[in-house]
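Duplicate of #3305? Posting structure anyway:
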């Protein structure tokens, strides 16, 4: 709930370490108004970022721009260890001082990096030390923490060409194509049968593969995509709620309001007020 309203929970940055058991299940797609760096230490999983599929192996860095819909799907046969580093644009600006936007656009242009073993070791030491500094803070930590985040970002920027190209099988390519189709046609009366036909699959097989690969059902994915666009329009335009519902593919304003409240715990108008107060 309130996935995109987390900016009041992260002032400048946050570092997090987690170990995901084989039976861990991430419930939902989410997005937030700050940047995220996901560093996979061990195990295997997949990332769905902005309607594209990426398979991850240990040593991969996933670079997620602010306000980008994403979700991780974990392999039921492996335990995953990972670091997450979150930071705001204002915090990054305090580190680089100039050309921050260009630096971040360059770094976050392609979602997955895979560094050499030596660079992975360097990055692991930096993340380990950063995590220790944030969990056991002393009088020096406030000076040390930004320095380590700056070193991590500089390491990734300097090795930005180590992109990890993806090799998807035919079913994954079809599901990715369908997700991208949804992202450009969600304003229309899109149906499962229509999209299944678009990728030359039977509706039953398509529905099964979509859930298997993305971790969510077709209808939920479509609704998520529409609600994400609604949050953008509520934040950045003065359109009324009915106009936004129609633009996002909701024919029923009441259904739009109910779906929005279920997702975010707020009505569309409450969300708009909350977001404008945060900007």
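Output from current build:
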């Amino acid at each position: 709930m309130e996935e995109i309203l987390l900016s009041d929970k992260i002032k400048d940055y946050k570092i997090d370490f987690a170990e995901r058991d084989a039976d861990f299940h991430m419930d939902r797609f989410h997005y937030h108004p700050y940047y995220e760096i996901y560093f996979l230490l061990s195990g295997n999983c997949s990332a769905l970022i902005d309607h594209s599929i990426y398979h991850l192996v240990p040593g991969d860095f996933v670079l997620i721009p602010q306000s980008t819909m994403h979700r991780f799907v974990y392999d039921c046969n492996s335990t995953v260890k990972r670091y997450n580093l979150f930071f705001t644009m204002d915090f990054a600006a305090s580190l680089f001082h100039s050309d921050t936007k260009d630096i971040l656009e360059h770094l976050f242009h392609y979602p997955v990096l895979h560094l050499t073993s030596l660079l992975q070791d360097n990055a692991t030491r930096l993340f380990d030390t950063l995590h220790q500094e944030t969990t056991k803070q002393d009088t020096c930590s406030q000076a040390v923490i930004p320095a380590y985040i700056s070193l991590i970002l500089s390491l990734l920027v300097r090795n930005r060409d180590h992109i990890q190209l993806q090799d998807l099988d035919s079913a994954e390519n079809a599901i990715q194509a369908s997700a991208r189709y949804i992202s450009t046609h969600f304003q229309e009366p899109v149906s499962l049968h229509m999209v299944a036909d678009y990728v030359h699959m039977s509706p039953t097989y398509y529905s099964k593969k979509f859930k298997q690969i993305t971790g969510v059902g077709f209808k939920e994915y479509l609704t998520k995509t529409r609600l994400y666009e609604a949050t953008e329009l509520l934040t950045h335009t003065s359109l009324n709620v009915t106009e936004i519902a129609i633009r996002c593919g909701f024919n029923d304003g009441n259904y739009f309001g109910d779906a929005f409240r279920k997702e975010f715990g707020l009505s569309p108008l409450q969300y708009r007020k909350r977001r404008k107060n945060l900007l």
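Confirmed duplicate; merging threads. The first helix runs from residue 89 to 96. The domain at 3-158 is CATH 2.60.120.280 (Jelly Rolls).
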